TrEMBL record:
This is Uncharacterized protein. Keywords: Signal. It comes from the Eukaryota. Residues 1-33 form the signal peptide. The keyword Signal applies. The keyword Signal applies. It comes from Linnemannia exigua.
Amino acid sequence: MKIPSRASIPWSRIHLPFITVLLTLIYTQSTQACERSCQLSVSHAFADKYQLLTSRHFLTLSQKINQSFFHGVPPPPAAYTPTEGNNAILHLQESLTRAQQAWDVSLFRTVFDTIFVDEPQFRGDCNEPHRVDQPAAGVNWTMSDCHAMDYICGNPPSICHFLPMIKVRIERKLAGLLGVKVGGGSVGSSDGGSGTPGSADDGDLYANFLGPALSKVIMTHPTLEPYTATLHGNLNQILEIVGDQIVKEAALFARPGAEPFRGDERWRPEWDLEIKLLLLSFP
Ligand SMILES: *[C@@H]1O[C@H](CO)[C@@H](O)[C@H](O)[C@H]1NC(C)=O
Ligand SMILES: *[C@@H]1O[C@H](CO)[C@@H](O)[C@H](O)[C@H]1NC(C)=O
């Protein structure tokens, strides 16, 4: 490093105010962003809600397995006893629970990426043009800041303002991913995009959870072996029906101006307030 000579001292004097302004700008901008802890908290808050909302699809699957897994197989005691039947269904439902746990874990990442990685990203300068004043340390943003911050940038009020749009983006993505997991194919087939429809057998749910569970059931109940194709077909039908339903929802979200989930099993209006207040509590 070059040791400054006397001649360089006037230079630093001239530039000191400029550097101070620059540092202030950088500081101001960084305190206004929804930073790491804000990003993580908000993503977790969203992911918790979507766990609840997507759990209904797993519940439907579980009920349908109970209702129609043995469809077309002679009733007890011909090929299986009532206890064996019950155990088989329980075993399949347990594999479904594991699939749901894996899905729940993946939800957080999907939500995080949708808000902070996918375009349009909630990052960048919120001062051009100026809309809101950064509150003093320890003071929360207000709902009026949420209302006023009407363009996409990095501060919490901007995310708050665009919450409806963010929900549509997340729901569309989740429905696409879950539809493919359950019904097979690839992401995009749901909304007529670039994906390809496939068989439920190729979906993650069958390939990694229900399929192995079915094999185990048949292995432990050799009397069911002649009905392997029937049982497999029943599971395939169940997955197709539920997968289609999820995909149809995804197609709804793909429409411009789509509304987020509504109704009892759907997004609750008070969750908006909960997430907005959480957001506004970050600097
Ligand atoms: C299947 O459904 C019946 C009737 O609703 C219920 O009694 C039974 O406990 C269920 N079995 C399993 C394994 O969930
Ligand atoms: C800021 O918001 C959070 C979350 O709503 C709340 O718990 C906290 O009390 C608020 N702080 C102030 C100073 O109002």
